[in-house]
Amino acid sequence: xxxxxxxxKGLRRKILIVDDELVAREILAAMLRDLYEVVFAExxxxxxxxxxxxxxxxxxxxxxxxMPELDGFSLLKILRSDxxxxxxxxxxxxxxxxxEAACLQSGAADFIAKPYDIPEIxxxxxxxxxxxxxxxVIIHETERDSLTxxxxxxxxxEYGRKIDEMNDxxxxxxxxxxxxRFRIINELYGRSYGDLLLKRxxxxxxxxxxxxxxxxxxxxxxCFFVYIPHDDNLPQVMKQLxxxxxxxxxxxxxxxxxxxxxxxxxxxxxxxxxDRAKLACRxxxxxxTTCYNQYNAELHDKELFHExxxxxxxxxxxxxxxxxxxxxxxxxxxxxxxxxxxxxxxRWFHPECGMISPGVFIRLFENNxxxxxxxRYVWNEAAAQIAKWxxxxxxxxxxxxxxxxxxxxxxxxxxxxxxxxxxxGLTTAELLLEITESAYTDNSQxxxxxxxxxRELGFRIEMDDFGSGYSSLNMLTSLAIDAxxxxxxxxxxxxxxxxxxxxxxxxIEIARLLEVPVIAEGVEKREQMELLKEMDCDxxxxxxxxxxxxxxxxxxxxxxxLKGE
Length: 565
What we know:
By secondary structure, the chain is of the alpha/beta class. It folds into three domains: 2-143, Response regulator (Rossmann fold, 3-Layer(aba) Sandwich); 153-295, Alpha-Beta Plaits; 306-563, Alpha-Beta Barrel (TIM Barrel), CATH 3.20.20.
């Protein structure tokens, strides 16, 4: 490739003239020597030996058809069948009328008739053939991924669209192959091993395409696209593909996710087919039971619904479709439970879709960063409500709000929360901040630094869903928090399962060592509350006391508390 680029910059190209007649060789050389470096061979056998040695330095072969030892037709056939030598363009010399077509069909780039034409015409034919061949090589080099030999993504889609157009949009299946944890594989076994794995997978993918027809490319560093004619027997296709990848790699250290869009006659552009195959592939991220997933109507409807929620979010915030509900937390350490605080929980009442579960839109907004807007809406609503209850009832009822992992990385977080508190005439101790335990494992140092900074501002931090993540005990000893909130899944079976009860007891003991109170959420039965009280739990939250309530109904709990009921 480098030699080719240098020749295109203006260096003299080398031309081999193959002819058994000395005079014919010299006449052509005289026409070309001022522009090219010219070398000679007297017959096909001599020419073949020279070409094999100088393959990468030759720009053109001018070949007579009738020679001893190895004639021009035979040499041309050998050159066209070799992957390296076939890139060299060949112009044939002939005096036979009608042989031009046969030469072109055999792979010749052009022909020069004997006796020779005007020198300017011959030089033009030579120049044109060389330029076409060099441009073709450059295109070939740039259209292929240098590591796997498969198409690059841009050429893959370009050729795929041409296949669709030329074949009247015949049914084609789109397949996305993604290597699981490829970054970790590179770190564990080295980049050279990772490159070898990619080459072998590329080889397997290429074999599949050769057997079934179609195209393949390496889309990203560890992702492959395959575009093949539709097959109604998808399980068999997947079995063949997975088997092929296993056979060419012979390695148990890697696994793949495969997403498929199977064409059932729906007229879709190639780009959209692969968008759907990628979606099916992404759905396998946390699956350990299967390695392939097919895009279907359910996935399609879900994708459209999620897209609608994303598009409707700003309007929903402006129209206050989101409503904050409050679930009470009761201190159970005394003789009688006492309302101690509340947790702010968001609900979305969509004018057309109805009540949308937080389990749907919160995860969706966390994944695309929109949770940032929603959290701020909740913080402002909760702070305003604390101030309202404070004015109405003369008491301070702290409310805890969620701080997502997206918020934690915002350098302006502390300043923004402080401004919200100040604008509502509150202190930082009245707005409690819940950070889920799993967030601490993403970037533990960043989280710890953020938590420490918030506590310096006077905010109190509750670690939410304790026990559901993977925080180490060593990290807990150095973590600045003000309360541990036990994940509700541990509470569900504490009355029936001694192991669950013992595990909850251990977590409460950990809290005692850290000298922070324990909050148990998800308490639904009196028996659970009494057992937790025996275990020295501090605060209870759950349906046993109350479901989450709108602010107007929650006010009734405050009034009961003030009356001593």
